[in-house]
Write a structure and sequence with these properties.
The chain is an alpha+beta fold and 328 residues long. It contains eight helices and twelve strands.
Length: 328
């Protein structure tokens, strides 16, 4: 069954606004949206001019970001009463578009993701602040694991030994990034001291850990050019990994969808998150992130979860910059 109702300009703007609120490495926002010729779907293209090439030479993080935008589009489509049928890499890896969403069918169920995630899209922020020592309830952990699994990705909430191993690797990677002049300069280029449509504003840097338990990314440089307040972070942060069996562009796109689905569901339940990305940027630390006891797997992302302040909103590019509207 199809609606055969063309997407209006208002529909397209709503979709693009939701897609554009997805998280991305350094808030680079590397996506562009274009309606299909029949106006019954939406193409999602990679904006390679916004790649973060030193930190992400293979484009893995870029595709994860695009996947997160795709999931937001699916949620927004449900809000419009449309079922989203997604094709990833319809023309093959490395080609445009990276995904196409067919939106001609009416929504089959009123809550396709188990909860209304649409209001959480603008509420979801990275929180680089201390979290409380309150544990994430087991029932919510199970729901987050299921949400990732529904997107073809494994979410694992680590026990203490695994958490300490991942934090040590993140600290090692952060130190290596700080010693790399090219990477350090690239990171600093995304710091925004004045109002902007992208990048990381000072307000979003949060705090730094007074006790050095938690290796937050040093956007302000080493030593920092701009100070952030010191605070006591949780001694044993709750860490989760997202892993896939394979490691191609389609897997990265699926990881992005899983990450955003998990993050939006967490937001609905008042749970905060931030990404610890440093260790996945360096091949040998990324390899050591995996748990050998779990067998072959590719760690795509490390999430820190907990209860605390929501974090500041990051700026967003206007819809006019990320959406091609059809000529009237």
């Amino acid at each position: 069954m199809t609606t055969e109702t063309e997407l209006t300009a208002a529909d397209l703007r709503l979709l693009a606004e939701a897609g554009g609120m997805a998280p991305s490495l350094h808030n680079s926002q590397p996506w562009h949206f274009r309606p299909t010729p029949d106006l019954l779907g939406l193409e999602v293209r990679a904006d390679l001019s916004r790649a973060v090439s030193a930190a992400d030479p293979d484009g893995r993080a870029l595709h994860i970001s695009i996947g997160a935008a795709v999931f937001n589009l699916r949620v927004a489509a449900a809000h419009l009463g449309r079922e989203a049928v997604v094709q990833l890499l319809p023309n093959g890896a490395g080609t445009q578009p990276r995904a196409v969403l067919g939106l001609s069918a009416p929504l089959r169920t009123p809550q396709p993701f188990g909860a209304d995630l649409y209001p959480a899209i603008p509420q979801r922020h990275s929180s680089r602040h201390p979290f409380t020592n309150r544990d994430v309830p087991e029932a919510l952990v199970a729901d987050l694991i299921t949400a990732a699994r529904d997107e073809g990705v494994t979410l694992t909430v680590l026990e203490e030994h695994g958490m300490r191993r991942v934090l040590a690797l993140t600290s090692e990677a952060e130190a290596r990034i700080a010693a790399d002049v090219t990477r350090e300069a690239e990171t600093h280029r995304w710091l925004r001291l004045e109002p902007s449509y992208d990048g990381i504003p000072l307000a979003a840097l949060g705090s730094h850990d007074r006790d050095a338990h938690l290796p937050m990314r040093g956007f302000a440089g080493h030593p920092p050019r701009h100070t952030t307040p010191a605070a006591h972070f949780e001694a044993l942060p709750q860490i989760a990994t997202l892993t896939t069996h394979f490691d191609g562009q389609a897997d990265w796109l699926r990881t992005g969808q899983a990450m955003e689905r998990v993050w939006l569901l967490a937001t609905v339940h008042g749970l905060r998150a931030s990404v610890l990305h440093q260790a996945v940027e360096i091949p040998d630390t990324r390899w050591r992130l995996r748990d050998p006891a779990e067998g072959p797997a590719h760690v795509q992302l490390v999430l820190r979860l907990g209860y605390g302040p929501p974090g500041a909103a990051s700026p967003r590019r206007p819809v006019s910059q990320v959406l091609d509207l059809p000529e009237e």
